[in-house]
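Ticket #4471: structure output looks truncated?

Reporter: J.K.
Steps to reproduce: submitted the chain below (192 residues) through the standard prediction queue, then opened the result file.
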Amino acid sequence: MTQANEALWQEGWYRHARVLASPNFGPRPPGVDISLIVIHSISLPPGEFGGEQVQALFTNRLDWDEHPYFQKIRGIEVSAHFYVRRDGALWQFVSCDERAWHAGASSHKGRDNCNDFSIGIELEGIEGGTFELMQYETLASLCSAIEACYPINAVTGHEHIAPGRKQDPGPGFDWASLQDNLAWPAERFPLP
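Returned output as attached by the reporter:
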């Protein structure tokens, strides 16, 4: 790791993120390369932005009785490494050196269990909805910082690694914009 990367990362924690540690994580398998970034979308309740419910979900503090929708997800224990709010604010819940619980049953290019070798980034939004310019700016900056520290060779959506089961971030996500901002080769991105 270069000196610049050491200034940005401490044991998998990114200096520019607000930390709220989740108990929902585990060790990665020995010797695994962290080579994939998975982009998701989330809002709780669906379509409502700006609250603290996502943070509460990822830290097992969500009040299941606060909203009728929460009964549908009652008791789940999930996390992501990062969460990007509509205003571009960045939160981190799990060290990138650890395995967050974001992808579930999944496969990327014939490799199953994407949680083992990926970093999960949640964008505040809804499946199929659009995202804010500030979110794309934070996301591109974060992806660049991750790639400088880990051997990333692909970025994809949850919908691409769990087709038929997940649909996020969906058709409202601008993959071309992210590719332009990152200037990574096209083969690192989902096929159009």
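Triage note (M.O.): checked the attachment and the full token line is present. The radius of gyration is 16 Å.
Status: closed, working as intended.
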